[in-house]
Inverse folding.
């Protein structure tokens, strides 16, 4: 019951934090410029049409009333309309949620793999401190830390292109983007065999997964190693060894569980950050997810889409 109360209290505290965050985001989005600039420059558009569009977007209100109007609509499921659709308006919610599902599918596998591998490497490096394996893991982690993710992504893509003939035959170098866009129609599914389908998905996910996984793996392995070393030097671990418990039991049943706490916290925060920060990876590998949506919304000064994007990422974090 105490844990439940603590969790509910933390969730309650997050509500005003989110409200303040959405208001600050609203101020920043409003300061990016006039979203009707492109509409005003179209030939044949009269002032009445511009005024009607401004009213539809709530731009004829003051900043604070406009925020509360947006917030009330958002809480009822109306996320506004996107103005980046030529002459037509499109609802924001399906657009943002569709992009979120694409990025989530891309990020979840990379994050889980990075966490599992990073934790295992960190534990082994700590248990075998100053061994060859520890030095290799440390060197690899610092190498990955020092490489920007766009460098990793571009190098991997260039490698796939150069060996395209061989690797494509193996189904491991399809860098054409999100495979869901090419296989969800009934016609595509009927004309695609199971082996080709699996190869297409493996090929589409392999390189972007490696790109996203690289930096996260380095962070998890270093955090886990440091945490494990601290726990292994604690009094209760020495007591467990003095009682005659086996080395594996001391490591996995006593030390590992406590050493996992800070890394689990890091994973929780890092997952939300990766969801909002996969812009470069999506761009390099032609995935139309949250990163692509953000770039398009900023370039086209689409305030409702920007607010939807920001709130979804904030809720995830």
């Amino acid at each position: 019951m105490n844990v439940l109360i603590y969790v509910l209290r933390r969730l309650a505290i997050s509500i005003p934090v989110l409200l303040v965050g959405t208001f600050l985001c609203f101020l920043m989005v409003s300061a990016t410029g006039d979203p009707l600039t492109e509409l005003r420059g179209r030939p044949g558009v009269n002032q009445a049409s511009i005024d009607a569009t401004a009213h539809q977007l709530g731009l004829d209100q003051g900043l604070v009333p406009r925020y509360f109007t947006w917030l009330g609509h958002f809480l009822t499921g109306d996320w506004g309309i996107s103005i980046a659709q030529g002459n037509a308006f499109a609802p924001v919610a399906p657009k943002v949620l569709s992009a979120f599902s694409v990025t989530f599918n891309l990020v979840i596998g990379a994050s889980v793999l990075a966490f599992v591998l990073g934790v295992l490497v960190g534990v082994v490096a700590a248990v075998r401190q100053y061994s060859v394996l520890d030095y290799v893991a440390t060197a690899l982690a610092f190498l990955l830390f020092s490489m920007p993710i766009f460098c990793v992504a571009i190098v991997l893509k260039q490698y796939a292109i150069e060996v395209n003939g061989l690797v494509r035959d193996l189904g491991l170098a399809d860098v054409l983007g999100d495979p869901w866009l090419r296989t969800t129609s009934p016609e595509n599914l009927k004309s695609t065999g199971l082996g080709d389908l699996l190869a297409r998905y493996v090929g589409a996910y392999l390189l972007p997964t490696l790109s996203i996984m690289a930096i996260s793996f380095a962070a998890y392995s270093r955090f886990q190693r440091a945490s494990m070393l601290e726990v292994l030097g604690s009094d209760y671990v020495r007591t467990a060894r003095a009682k005659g418990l086996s080395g594996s039991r001391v490591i996995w049943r006593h030390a590992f569980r406590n050493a996992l706490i800070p890394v689990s916290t890091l994973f929780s925060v890092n997952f939300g950050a990766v969801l909002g920060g996969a812009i470069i990876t999506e761009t390099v590998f032609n995935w139309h997810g949250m990163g692509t949506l953000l770039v398009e919304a900023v370039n086209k000064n689409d305030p409702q889409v920007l607010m939807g994007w920001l709130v979804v990422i904030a809720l995830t974090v």
In short: The two ends are 25 Å apart (CA to CA).
